[in-house]
Design a protein that fits this description.
- The structure is a single chain.
- This protein has 639 residues and is mostly helical.
- The chain is built from 24 helices and 5 strands.
- Strands 2-1-3-4-5 form a 5-stranded parallel beta sheet, sandwiched between helices.
- α21 links the parallel β3 and β4 (569-573).
- α8 packs antiparallel against α13 (357-376), α9 (271-281) packs antiparallel against α10 (287-303) and α18 (450-474) packs parallel to α19 (496-511).
- The longest helix is centred in the N-terminal third of the chain and has 51 residues, at 60-110.
């Protein structure tokens, strides 16, 4: 169930400058924070393996070396395979150039306008690539061109020759520094990530303890829960995503192999490459799968003469992605990340804007940390509300809000869905009664105008009657009361909302086999007494909602027991959290009054009140077998 936020708008706005400053620091310090974030992500992924080895009495550093070494070996092997496969694809591209040009000519003939011009441009590009013969490059240094050579290689009007002379030694150092920087910078980043990973794995317990000490003993329990929650969510997400991506890559490889096998034109080239790319690039949310699909789809046009392989390849990728995204991932992920679909998309855009492609890769784990912070830190609770997957509004608040907007149809849909999942009693107890309490508080505070109040009451009454009819159709046996000897009369203490809750109680009693009647709120107190007399009610239930529940109930109880001293009375002070003994003292202190605070207790209490009348009826009519509803029918689970 969703939580209500306790912090006010002012406190939330006061956090915004700090958040803006944090975003600015994250952006400025990205060169340091990105490797650290990647290392933390990898540490979460490798921690279960290290822990497993440590539990088998493997020395911690040896376990770390084994796990990190195995991971680096796997990454190196995959990188080598991909590099070899790319070299093979590059070597084979000239063989496919004629096929590509033929298809582009067909496309140009079948189209017109901008599409034809685009096809012509692509065709020209492929011709240029196919006709290019790379020449060996001679090493450049401090060179001079002789006059004879210059005369023999005099450029024509259409050719320009650029000759670079490096006569200064420092130019060589400048070139070496430039190219070394381009090569060494990624290697240094990778080395930094590796050092961070080893450090985090070796000191993960110590770092946890230091964070706990930094927070303080007063919030030790909450901090421990937050750390465990974040670690569990991120680890489960990474493990499931790795498993799903591996299966996805295997399916891509098998699918492309089958497409090539049944194409009658030979096998699909470099299936292993496309399977590995599909597995790796799918770690990038949204964009990764389609980047991985682009190259094999283009290659299917270049290699195969017909269009069947192209369409089969497109269907393979689209089908796999739709099936994986809509069925497999929700089933395996569940609510492990605790993020809504909109939050996943927004986080991908936000972290990509901050950190580029690495931010896209890290977007989900980083946002999971923000959701956990919002869950356990009151000042950041708005993050959990905005990014979490929990229901934004509680069912009662959602229903009341829809009725305030005069949208009875959506409120009906919400109630029927809740009825299907939880049952009628919980619909009344968890949704409609709290919604009526909110309406009563707004009415007392003067926040409801006349039209809105009238609509709310009529809509609530209609919904209760509709839900009751739906329940009776589902359980036809409940239409005939089992106990027709004793009548229970449900009286409203004061308002229409009290009457509606009384209608709910009478309805539930009838569904459980007890004859019950709900009185109208328009009756005066004296008319209610006459109704008790005319219907010979053996038990009375008074329904009262806050904020005026105690006062109105006390007045009605006094009138009832003045005329009917021995009348058993159940007083429903709905949603009241006070102890029943205290409630009884505040009402009247009379033993005939039985205060209850929920429908389940009210049904049980009324059943107990009815039993003496049934026994008396059995003694007075020994030849008639009473048909009292068994207690388990009235109160499920009670014996």
């Amino acid at each position: 169930m969703a939580r209500t936020t306790n912090t006010g708008i002012v406190s939330k706005l006061g956090v915004m400058p700090s958040l803006c400053l944090a975003v600015a620091v994250i952006y400025i310090a990205r060169d340091v924070l990105v490797p650290l974030a990647v290392a933390v992500l990898l540490a979460f992924l490798l921690t279960p393996a290290v822990t497993w080895l440590e539990r088998r009495r493997v020395w911690r550093w040896l376990a770390i070396i084994l796990v990190v070494g195995a991971s680096l070996s796997a990454v190196g092997a995959i990188t080598w395979v991909i590099e070899q496969q790319f070299v093979e694809v590059g070597a084979q591209l000239p063989k496919y150039s004629q096929n590509i040009q033929d298809k582009l000519r067909s496309l140009r003939r079948a189209s017109a306008g901008g599409l034809a011009n685009a096809a012509a441009g692509v065709e020209s590009t492929f011709k240029t690539v196919a006709s290019t013969n790379p020449t060996a490059h001679q090493p450049t240094g401090a060179t001079s061109v002789s006059a004879a050579d210059h005369t023999e290689t005099q450029p024509s009007a259409q050719t320009s020759v650029v000759v670079q002379e490096y006569s200064e030694p420092w130019v060589w150092f400048q070139m070496i520094g430039q190219y070394s920087g381009q090569v060494l910078s990624p290697l240094a980043t990778l080395g930094l990530v590796l050092v961070f990973v080893i450090f985090l794995l070796a000191n993960r317990k110590d770092l946890r303890d230091r964070v706990l000490r930094l927070v303080g003993d007063a919030r030790l329990h909450v901090t421990t829960q937050a750390l465990d929650d974040a670690a569990t969510r991120i680890t489960h997400y990474l493990q499931m995503q790795s498993a799903i991506n591996a299966i996805y890559g295997v399916c891509v490889g098998i699918g492309l192999w089958l497409i090539g096998a049944y194409s009658h034109e030979g096998r699909f080239p470099n299936v292993l490459l496309w399977a590995l790319l599909a597995m790796l690039l799918r770690f990038l949310p949204y964009l990764g799968p389609w980047i991985a699909a682009a190259l094999p789809i283009i290659l299917s046009l270049a290699v195969f003469s017909g269009a069947s392989v192209f369409f089969a390849t497109v269907c393979l990728y689209v089908g796999l992605e739709v099936f994986t995204s809509n069925l497999i991932e929700p089933w395996l992920y569940g609510s492990s990340t605790g993020m809504s679909a909109v939050a996943i998309l927004a986080s991908a855009v936000f972290w990509t804007w901050l950190w580029g492609p690495v931010g896209l890769l890290l977007s989900t784990p980083l946002t999971v940390c923000l959701v956990v912070l919002g869950k356990y830190v009151p000042q950041l609770q708005f993050l959990a509300v905005m990014l979490g997957d929990e229901q934004a509004l509680e069912p009662a608040v959602h229903t009341y809000q829809r009725l305030l907007s005069f949208d009875q149809e959506e409120a009906r849909e919400l109630l029927h869905k809740y009825l299907k999942d939880h049952g009628l009693e919980h619909v009344y107890e968890d949704v409609l009664i709290p919604a009526l309490v909110m309406a009563e508080k707004d009415r007392y505070a003067g926040r409801l105008d006349g039209d809105c109040e009238t609509f709310l009451c009529q809509a609530m009454r209609d919904l209760v009657e509709e839900l009751g009819e739906a329940q009776k159709k589902e359980h036809p046996a409940a239409n005939v009361p089992i106990n027709s000897v004793v009548t229970v009369l449900c009286l409203p203490a004061h308002s229409q909302a009290d009457e509606i809750v009384g209608l709910m109680l009478a309805q539930l009693l009838e569904l459980k086999g007890q004859r019950a009647t709900a009185a109208s709120q328009t009756l005066l107190a004296g008319e209610m007494l006459e109704l008790i007399q005319s219907q010979k009610a053996a038990v009375v239930s008074i329904s009262a909602l806050p904020p005026g529940a105690i006062g109105h109930s006390r007045y009605l109880c006094k009138r009832l027991h003045t005329r009917f001293p021995d009348l058993p009375t159940a007083v429903g002070l709905w949603t009241n959290k006070t102890h029943p003994k205290t409630l009884l003292d505040r009402l009247s202190g009379d033993h005939r009054v039985h205060p209850v605070t929920n429908l389940k207790d009210a049904i049980a209490e009324i059943h107990e009140m009815v039993q003496p009348f049934l026994l008396q009826h059995a003694r007075d009519n020994p030849d008639v077998k009473p048909s009292s509803p068994p207690l388990e029918n009235l109160v499920p689970g009670r014996t």
